[in-house]
């Protein structure tokens, strides 16, 4: 079928809305009519080259929610009409990682940037001229239709608004899990959240719900600091340097047992700064993405060893998507998790470049593309 999508044809150029061709679902695949797509910073990394895809053109988008329209051969877990969230990391349930309880490291993840469908290693999406298109994490939610492997979809409650559900494809479980799973925040611990955009605000809520004593939100944007206090932060600062004395005084200079880094782009030179507010035997969780070509890290190795600190990477917040996405949405439904309040503005697909500029300018916690018939 012919539809349209937000395409990148080269680095450091704006998103362009183009006509694309979406193929029919093959074995173990489903076709989805998209209703909403989250605008995550990771898709901006496609534009800068921080996340290198297998080629161009690229169809962006890896957060989204919609309705199943067609199912391929062998699909048993979905029916036409089901509401689903797209999980940016698929979960096959069969590989060693899935069986070991770390479904966020599913073996299908090795294929996410190659563009070829996991079912048969061919391309599902083509341009109007017949060029293969590389969809972000084998999804491409910046299009009103998608064909994806069933391992990349999670069935959800039909009462959940699509714009809310969309954020649970990446940002909510990534942030929440960075605190509760990768960080393992315990009641009474002191926690710092570095960067309080969409992922950081979810991490902040995770720390609060887990019972943290003090939650220090650190972000250079004043408006985001104000919002962080509304989401449960006890303190808010513009920088680690500004926060240092206050964190020290509030923790009797024990510092933070957990530091969760959810900035839009991680730089190796900043790692030691984040470890400086991490307590003895504490954990600094790196969730924000750095450039894949950046392998230089500033780190005081002696202090890392002598104070027995932990530096922990985190992808998808350590989440099990098939379990955690419905659980987080159930928490939203009863009012325990604020997701709707994180959506600062909704955009049309044609406004995608405006939406990303708002993100870069610090105007949004999370922007969402909401699809209408005009987009199809």
Order of helices and strands: EEEHEEEHEEEEHHEHEHEHEHEHEHEHE
- Determine the CATH superfamily of the largest domain: Medium-chain alcohol dehydrogenases, catalytic domain
Average pLDDT metric = 96
* CATH architectural type of the largest domain: Alpha-Beta Complex
> Which class do the helix and strand fractions yield?
alpha/beta
Strand content: 15-25%
Overview of the molecule:
With 376 residues, the chain is an alpha/beta fold. The chain has 2 domains: 2-169 and 338-375, Quinone Oxidoreductase, Chain A, domain 1; 175-315, NAD(P)-binding Rossmann-like Domain (Rossmann fold, 3-Layer(aba) Sandwich), CATH 3.40.50. 25% of the residues lie in helices and 25% in strands. It has 11 helices and 18 strands. It has helices at 41-48, 96-99, 162-166, 171-182, 198-209, 222-230, 240-250, 271-275, 301-306, 321-333, 352-360, and strands spanning 2-8, 16-22, 29-39, 58-59, 63-71, 83-86, 125-127, 134-135, 145-149, 153-155, 191-194, 215-218, 235-237, 256-261, 278-286, 310-313, 343-347, 366-370. The strands form 3 sheets. Strands 3, 5, 6, 9, 10, 17 and 18 form a 7-stranded mixed sheet that branches. A 6-stranded parallel sheet has the order 13-12-11-14-15-16, sandwiched between helices. The chain is globular. The mean pLDDT is 96.
